[in-house]
Predict the 3D structure of the following.
Amino acid sequence: MSGFLPALGIAIPIAFGAGPAPAAPAVDLNAFLPSARDLVGWTPSGEPQHYAGEELYTYIDGGAEIYQEYGFKQVLAQDYKNAAGRGLTLEIYEMKSPEAAFGAFTFKASGKGQSVPIGQAAELEDYYLNAWKGDVVFTVIGFDDSPESLAGIRAVAKAVDAKIPVGGTRPALMGRLPGAWARAPHIKYFTGVLGLFNIDAFFKGGIFKFKAGAAAEMNGDWLFLFQYSDETESLQRLAEIQKKLFADVSIKGFAALPDGGFEGRTSKDKTFRAKAAGNLIVLALTNKGAADAEKIMASFGR
Amino acid sequence: MSEKLNRREFINRSAKIGATAIIGKKVLGALADGPLSAWAAETIDIAVVNGADYGAMAAKAVQMLGGMGRFVPKGAKVALLPNVQAKNPGTFTKPEILRSVIKMCKEAGASEIACLSQLTPAHWEGCGLAAVVKEEDVLLTLVSNKEPANFKKVPIPDGQALPIAMIMNELFKYDLYINMPVTKDHAGNKFTGTLKNHMGLNGNNRDFHKANWKTDPADIDHLDTCIADLNAVLNPALNIVDATEIITSNGPMGPGDLAKPQKIVAGLDRVAIDAYCARNILKLNPQDIVCIRKAYERKLGEIDPARVRISEVRL
């Protein structure tokens, strides 16, 4: 039952059970791992770690739900090192669809980083890079912001990009973001309450009951599109939401509007304004007041 | 060996040395009538230390609380529960903090020190904590959560979402344990700290996350209610929270936005500590974090900062 772990020298582990073998994955993610031949100055370090399905809860201790919400299939993680002793970690997540992978990418990317031409979308942040291509979202982590690490991050990411043969399309809902909102660097695509809740805690109650959602942020202002089956459902949901927010004592200044929508202020004193538009509910959220919320809504039109 | 005998044995051993870390007792109850009551009446509840030397900050925080000897009686067998998430910056308990706590436990006269974990050697090696364990010559006990026999059933009185906890058998070999989380963002409930770190001792954590995750806000409340339930049967001798470098997005694993509050927060009251960290470090309302609110409602600690004695210093 117990013994020493030679690698650690002093450990008394309880044996790790092998557990049931995971179902055979559809894609061999090993094919996307850059080898030493694909990179200059960086080589794989150690064996890749693979987790599929529910095993993600082992890899991400206590935090796998958001990936499961988007539709997780498997992840492969591989470390790299260079001669100077710096390290990188590459994580390749296969999601259930390009839409799921795109959503997970928008969850992971802050919108504050630098857009880089890798995959179908990529953002380089202080010490890591997230990228999306087809069913895959991948992350390269450098552990520091040194030029050497950042160059390594880019090199590994480009090598992964080159090995993923097929792309995919962005969710059609993202195309319904209007004008400048569609080009905003900070966008989100969400398919459940966690994705939405992680944008703003105002949405914790889960009262929107959407099929999918798109959001964009510009200068602290947010525009949200919640998608429903049809106009009948969006109008029905809007009425339900209005009723619940009206009854919510934490909401201030709640008022119905002539366009059938409503407005109010959250417990954090952000102003929100919402209305139905076809099979969507459109919602503006801003900390700049009612006039700004009205301006955001006007940008959507009809 | 029956479950009851083992549990009684554990409690008896804890009582002999006057430790507060007894499964089934409550922090506030222990403070009210336990061996620390006289000291507790005249000292602080939470120590906050700011600085850049994280090991020294941990030592200072414990000193402000009365010194490690208050929590680790001579001869005690001590388990440590650091947060071993990933090697991504701001996600794991800093090695220098673990080293400092180990040294303090040794100086207090601990007869045995072990780190307990359900994660893999790769997790421990990646974040540098395995090296500390090796260099400080303490035990590292890795428990597989795939083997139910590694865990002991502990009924949770009035468990709202979790009727039974599955506490790792290894914990019962120790007289007390020190809880050493990182406070940081968590995508599931926006906050993690002392309360949630206890999932590291529990074997049925998958029950906290409903199967076939759905778009259902009740699942978030379920997770946090399970955390509060679990904490009703666990009672650390001390909590030392790493708030030195933390992620404020994409938690708990990251990578995410990295903040450097450069604080260490320590004390006995898990609710008060988590409420402090939520309010002052992550800028969240503790009442909005369900596990903190539920733990407060369970009388596991104090959520009102006006009723908590906090002392903050800079090194």
Notes: Chain A has eight helices and 14 strands.
